[in-house]
Write a structure and sequence with these properties.
Blueprint: E1 4-7, E2 12-15, H1 41-52, H2 56-68, H3 71-98, H4 105-113, H5 115-148, H6 155-172, H7 175-203, H8 220-232, H9 248-284, H10 289-335, H11 353-372, H12 376-405, H13 420-438, H14 442-465
Antiparallel strand pairs: 1-2
Helix pairs in contact: 1-7, 1-9, 1-10, 2-3, 2-8, 2-9, 3-8, 3-9, 3-13, 4-5, 4-12, 5-6, 5-10, 5-11, 5-12, 5-14, 6-10, 6-11, 7-9, 7-10, 9-10, 10-11, 11-12, 12-13, 12-14
């Protein structure tokens, strides 16, 4: 028999659901339209690839090449990044299949560490993580859209704002429209990357022999890994789809594994093409490695094509990030009565409409912040990185906590080599948290400050609730 359970943020007592249920129902959700399983494995893989294969693969390889120390170490860095991402995906596969829920990390942190930590995560995701990522992708889109159609001074933030408004409206129309657009954008993006692979590996002539130079300091390889893992970042967003994937206990595992495998293959092929087309020295001195490879093969027309490709990639990543980000804001509204308007699900389009509008509004404010700063893209990376890796670490630790607290919970997928596998993942998160604080500028302090600002808000909300 279910027991009565009080949900402190909702302020009422309801019948608790059985712990083995596929989807935990919050008090508000039981009275309203709820997410329906409408996504297939193909839909989920398209969203994962759409989030990860974005602007990073066109911007970060030059920085990695400058610090890797040699072609072999350069390729090793990308291989290690894929392995770490796969380890993290295995951890998330257990969490997502054992606790399928639209709230994703928010749901895991709530069960493992309590409502207060979950609230801070949802606050950070709404104010820093997801909205900062959307704004960052908006600036990438603006940079390359301005190459195709310049709008003068202020054109980049204007393009960024227009892109955010576009993808927000697209997702407001509904899941069917959003996922269909994502398939088109992801397909165009993958085909475009493959064209660069063909150009670099087959058509480009070998670069001039490089003059041997002293290898950079050993610590530089660690700096290179920061940019590699930044490029791989985003696969965890699949956790927010677990409440809307058909047969989630089985299909979420395949969605994560197929997604990571496809992403790692694309990245390795793209970097092999960059190496063959430009060489390590040529890459390290390039601001736009993809455009430079295509310029060697097809002239300025090739460079223009790559600019279009990167704009499409940024738009596709923004669309997928907007889709998943609104789900955690929706989950916050489900559990916190003062923000209950964010937890309303519009059954007509099967979308969290209010959460989407709130997310888009905050992202537009961050575009203003980036426009005020010298480099909007860099400012957004600094703004999000420390907070992201802090909560990523907590998500990894939640696997240990939930295994201890709920040993009888059905786990359709168990992470192999437990506890070694999640321990490696947590150590990687600690390293990245340290690096994101050590190698970033003032934007990191602003992001951490916004996170800390949620603490008094939490205490105020608890006092008002009592």
């Amino acid at each position: 028999m279910p027991e009565n359970r009080r949900y402190p943020w909702a302020g009422e007592t309801v019948d608790a659901v059985d712990e083995g249920d596929a989807q935990y129902q919050s008090p508000v959700q039981t009275r309203q339209a709820a997410p329906r399983p409408m996504l297939s494995v193909l839909d989920a893989v398209a969203l994962i690839v759409g989030v990860v294969v974005g602007a990073g693969i066109f911007k970060t390889p030059a920085v990695v090449a400058a610090h890797a120390g040699g072609p072999g170490l350069f390729l090793l860095a990308w291989l290690v990044g894929g392995v770490i991402s796969l380890i993290g995906a295995l951890c998330y596969a257990e969490l997502a299949t054992s606790y399928p829920h639209t709230g994703g990390d928010y749901h895991y942190l709530r069960r493992a560490f309590g409502q207060d930590m979950a609230f801070l995560f949802a606050w950070a995701r709404m104010m820093v993580l997801q909205t900062g990522s959307i704004a960052m992708l908006g600036f990438v889109f603006g940079d390359y859209a301005s190459q195709l159609l310049p709008l003068g001074q202020g054109g980049v933030p204007l393009y960024a704002a227009l892109a955010i408004a576009l993808v927000t409206m697209l997702n407001l129309f509904g899941v069917r429209q959003g996922k269909s657009a994502q398939k088109v954008l992801t397909t165009a993006k993958v085909l475009g990357v493959l064209s660069i692979v063909v150009a670099g590996l087959i058509l480009a002539a070998p670069p001039a022999p490089e003059v041997a130079t002293d290898a950079p300091p050993r610590a530089a390889f660690g700096l290179a890994m920061i940019f590699v893992l930044l490029t791989y970042g985003g696969w965890n967003e699949a956790a927010y789809m677990s409440g809307e994937v058909r047969d989630a206990r089985r299909n979420m595992v395949w969605s994560l594994l197929w997604g990571i495998a496809l992403i790692a293959t694309i990245f390795m092929l793209a970097n092999l093409a960059y190496l063959k087309g430009l060489g390590l020295r040529g890459m390290s001195g390039s601001e736009v490695v993809a455009a430079d490879v295509m310029r060697r093969v097809a002239g300025q027309g090739g460079a223009t094509f790559v600019s279009m490709l990167i704009a499409i990639a940024a738009l596709g990543s923004m669309n997928a990030t907007t889709f998943t980000g609104a789900r955690s804001i929706y989950a916050l509204g489900q559990d916190y009565r003062p923000l209950g308007f964010l937890g309303r699900w519009r059954d007509g389009g099967s979308t969290p409409a209010n959460a989407l509008l709130m997310q888009g509004s905050i992202a537009l404010l961050l575009v203003l912040l980036g426009a005020w700063a010298r480099d909007g893209f860099v400012t957004m990376v600094e703004y999000t990185a420390p907070v992201f890796w802090f909560f990523f670490l907590l998500a990894g630790l939640s696997l240990f906590v939930l295994r201890t607290q709920e040993p009888e919970r059905p786990r359709p997928f168990r992470v192999p080599l437990y506890p070694l596998t999640p321990l490696i993942f947590c150590v990687s998160c600690v390293y990245m948290l340290h690096s994101s604080l050590a190698y970033t500028g003032p934007g990191a302090a602003i992001g951490v400050g916004v996170l800390v600002a949620g603490v008094p808000l939490l205490f105020l909300a608890r006092a008002r609730q009592r």
